[in-house]
Amino acid sequence: MKICIFGAGAVGGYLAARLLKAGHHTVSLVARGEQLDAIRTSGLRLLAEQEDFTVRPAAVTDRAGDLPPQDLVITTLKAHSQPAVARDIGALLGDTGCAMFANNGIPWWWEFRGAGSPGAPVPLLDPDGQLWREVGPQRVLGCVIYSANEVVEPGVVRHTANNRWVLGEPDGSHSGRLEAACDLLRAAGVNAQASDDIRRWIWSKLLRNAPLNSVCALTRLPINGLAGEPALIELCSAVVDEVAAVAASHGVDVSDQVGAAKAAPRLGGAADGASALGIRPSMLQDVEQGRPMEIEAIVGQVQALGRATGTPTPSLDLLVPLLRGLDRRRAQR
């Protein structure tokens, strides 16, 4: 298969390194800036607990149009970066390819549930409907990531924890392309599984992502660093409850996950300071590097979905404008 990793940062770099090391497919990368230059010059290096290896892609470019049509495009760009490259992704898919969107939070294709329920673009995530038109939700696989990775220097990705990837069709079907994507990831050492209810997995991960990303970004503390202020743990716990309530208001019951979300190694790692040592959520990494944060996908759209059903979200109502203000200040600088 021809596979393109669109966005070779922390997550994309990890996937690319695994696929390239396995050597079963032709893997190309779309990258930019110092990451692009480093991979071109020295290859892509992956550091893990018991691994340290360097691989070279079939091609690495910042011009997606340089690549031929792909069988699978794995898009690991942050949600706010996706609309600007919708046309490039759509062109890479050709007539038969599909795109797997591996990013945190609510995805742009959220309202699509199959031909009988076509839905419409989500304004906060796809403001002008570019992804909806150029990529098309019918050509999408969803993906929920449980994998902690970080670019420690250009061309070098460190994998720090977890290796679980849940894939699913937006309409809940078990398709051939879904099984093929899971198979190729598993063959590369990526623990992938297929789900017939990808939205429930998205909500389940948001139980952790929404509180920890938000509070760590605003305080600049890693997860275990929150242990020094009990009120921060209480705030995180309140956000967990609000995310579960919003999910329930949209017909998805994740109440059985709430207790686990508040226990080790999730919020428990923050509550006692003894686990999740030094783990820095993606929004914390972004704010430290002066990059835009995934505010809307991780918390803004959750707040919007709550308002659509009249579900109270007082903690999110506080956090969302604070995060937007922080991001606006970053942009001004």
Automatic annotation (TrEMBL):
GO terms for biological process: pantothenate biosynthetic process. It comes from Ramlibacter pinisoli. InterPro entries: 6-PGluconate_DH-like_C_sf, 6PGD_dom2, ApbA, KPA_reductase, KPR-Related, KPR_N, NAD(P)-bd_dom_sf. Its EC number is 1.1.1.169. PANTHER family: 2-DEHYDROPANTOATE 2-REDUCTASE, PROBABLE 2-DEHYDROPANTOATE 2-REDUCTASE. It catalyses: (R)-pantoate + NADP(+) = 2-dehydropantoate + NADPH + H(+). Pathway: Cofactor biosynthesis; (R)-pantothenate biosynthesis; (R)-pantoate from 3-methyl-2-oxobutanoate: step 2/2. Belongs to the ketopantoate reductase family. The lineage of its organism: Bacteria, Pseudomonadati, Pseudomonadota, Betaproteobacteria, Burkholderiales. It holds the Pfam family ApbA_C. One of its GO terms (molecular function) is 2-dehydropantoate 2-reductase activity. Catalyzes the NADPH-dependent reduction of ketopantoate into pantoic acid. This is 2-dehydropantoate 2-reductase. One of its GO terms (cellular component) is cytoplasm. It is an enzyme of class 1 (oxidoreductase). Residues 197-326 form the Ketopantoate reductase C-terminal domain. Residues 3-171 form the Ketopantoate reductase N-terminal domain. Keywords: NADP, Oxidoreductase, Pantothenate biosynthesis. It comes from the Bacteria.
